[in-house]
Specification:
Elements (H helix, E strand, L loop, with lengths): L16 E13 L3 E8 L2 E8 L4 H8 L6 E10 L8 E12 L12 H6 L1 H4 L3 H23 L3 E2 L5 E2 L11 E4 L2 E5 L4 H9 L4 E9 L12 E10 L4 H31 L12 E3 H10 L13 H15 L3 E5 L22 E6 L2 E8 L4 H10 L8 H5 L8 E7 H9 L20
Parallel strand pairs: 3-5, 6-10, 12-13
Antiparallel strand pairs: 1-2, 1-4, 2-3, 4-5, 7-9, 8-9, 10-11, 11-16, 13-14, 14-15, 15-16
Helix pairs in contact: 4-6, 4-11, 7-8
This protein binds one RNA strand through strand 2, helix 2, strand 11, strand 15 and strand 16.
Length: 434
RNA sequence: GGACCUGUGGUGCAGCCUGGAGUGCACGCCGGCCUGUCAAGCCGGAGGUCGCGGGUUCAAAUCCCGUCAGGUCCGCCA
């Protein structure tokens, strides 16, 4: 029978004989008495052995090393002298399930070395918590979308052509021709609307061949994608996303808020609705007024501008989130719908949380003629993506959606210094292993 | 792709500017001591071609050039 007792539950078994399993956290091997701290995913407990009473056990314990895996049977005793929980297990039997060599890393090791030995690094309480939070968010995302009757899809990651620009695509050999790894499920989630689903969502990998050397980029990451039908404008999409995020952060706060505060030091406060919305041109004005001149020539916000905008919103509107809306068409892809009143502007938005861009979304152009014109305007050949244009020729509701970077979301939520810290196994320009 | 920064026992650092024997600190590891520890403590020990190559010099971890590996920020984006 598999392990059924966890360390956090020991308190309910005082006076009983129990069997517990876990990792050796530390061994204090004294002349008369030995103390072994055993760790599992729920906590730590002290195991004690009097050498004189059980020399056979003493010999086994002396041979243990940190991070070895043991199975211990003994009596649970309430013992006020023990600072670790006020209880201990008097060892009656110990089995070494796995003897560990000395670990090549510790909590102080550099990120690079910890990534080399990620399976050891993930054992830390901080990392265990990180991935439980990430799983909670994934589940909340799924629950929320399903509650709106949206259908979960799993779109292909192998594509014959680019969905946006070819610059950031990984090319792979596909029998006797070329294929590409999907940098977004963009086309395929829009297809779901043309296919008659009220809304679709997906949580899956996306691939970006950007040689980006920053703390917020990677070449493969998990994207939370939504596409919803019958929207009136991008406002409907923003409204959906802010309610989704509020729900997800509430769930994280409820289930892990105390642990996050204890382990990482920051409180999880579910955001107030609605999030502020600031049109792009207004955002530019705010940034300029803060005394920062954006050096780039295309008129878009750079990272420093986004941080300044976030600081402005935090100060004047008391909010950590801000939707930047209505980007100029020149800055957005061909599939973003444009305002009928001002064709120079798109019905699009970015979502910035604490100064970091975590989402791009928009209402899509679902009218074939307009779409083809916009594809041409951006310098692409509509015939190369005819399958995509076809989605809109046979009856397709107005629709919109967004993509949310899961690792960026968790990075901001937990105050991590890099997406590498919150990615199970990071992939970047210089990192393809382990 | 651009700018800047880093590379020193298993781990994290100091030493470099102002050249002088691989010098130091913390953690870990090994051994000994220790009557209940709990970040255990005390004593002792092992462990390093100072990323690599070349140059300057009587002498290079230290100065110069090259190279390799990584990081931060920018660009690109989620």
């Amino acid at each position: 029978m598999a392990r059924d007792l966890r360390i956090a539950d020991l308190r309910d078994h005082a006076g009983e004989q129990v069997t517990l399993s876990g990792w050796v956290d530390v061994l204090r091997d004294q002349k008369q008495v030995q103390f072994l701290v055993v760790r599992d995913e729920t906590g730590r407990v002290q195991v004690v052995n009097e050498r004189a009473e059980r020399p056979d056990i003493a010999e086994i314990l002396s041979g243990l090393s940190v991070d070895s895996v043991v199975k211990v049977t003994g009596l649970v005793v309430i013992e006020p002298r023990v600072k670790l929980g006020g209880l201990e297990v008097r060892c009656e039997r110990v089995e070494v399930l796995s003897l560990a060599e000395e670990a090549p890393i510790n909590a102080a090791s550099s990120l690079e070395k910890r990534m080399d030995w990620r399976f050891i690094d993930l054992r830390s309480a901080r990392n265990q918590l990180t991935f439980r939070v990430e799983a909670e968010i994934s589940d909340a995302f799924r629950q929320f979308c399903r509650s709106k009757d949206f259908v979960e899809i799993n779109s292909p990651k192998l594509m014959a052509s680019a969905s946006e620009s070819t610059a950031e695509l990984f090319e792979v050999r596909y029998f006797d021709r070329k294929a590409y790894l999907a940098q977004s499920p963009q086309f395929y989630k829009q297809m779901g609307i043309a296919s008659g689903f009220p809304g679709v969502f997906e949580t899956g990998p996306v691939f970006r061949a950007n040689p980006s050397f920053t703390s917020r980029h990677d070449t493969e990451f998990t994207s939370l994608d939504v596409e919803m039908g019958f929207v009136d404008s991008h406002e409907d999409v923003m409204s959906f996303e802010e309610r989704l995020l509020a729900y997800a952060l509430e769930r994280v706060a409820d289930r892990y808020g105390a642990e996050i505060e204890a382990e990482l030091g920051g409180a999880v406060v579910p955001p107030r609705l609605p999030f502020p919305r600031i049109p792009h041109h207004e955002a530019l004005r705010i940034v300029e007024a803060s005394g920062y001149h954006i050096p780039r020539s295309d008129g878009d916000l750079d990272p420093e501008a986004e941080r300044r905008l976030a600081a402005h919103v935090a100060e004047h509107l008391d909010h950590e989130f801000v939707f930047v809306t209505d980007y100029p068409a020149s800055l957005r892809p061909f599939y973003h719908m444009r305002h009928s009143s001002d064709p120079g502007l798109t019905k699009s938005f970015d979502l910035i949380w604490k100064g970091l861009e975590i989402t791009t979304g928009a209402q899509r152009e679902h009218r074939p003629d307009e779409l083809v014109a916009q594809i041409r305007e951006k310098g692409f050949d509509p015939s190369a993506i005819q399958f995509y244009v076809n989605f809109f020729r046979f009856g397709c509701p107005p629709h919109g959606g967004f993509g949310l970077g899961l690792t960026r979301l968790v990075m901001v939520l937990l105050g991590a210094p890099s997406v590498r810290e919150v990615t199970y196994l990071y992939r970047g320009p210089n990192r393809l292993t382990p």
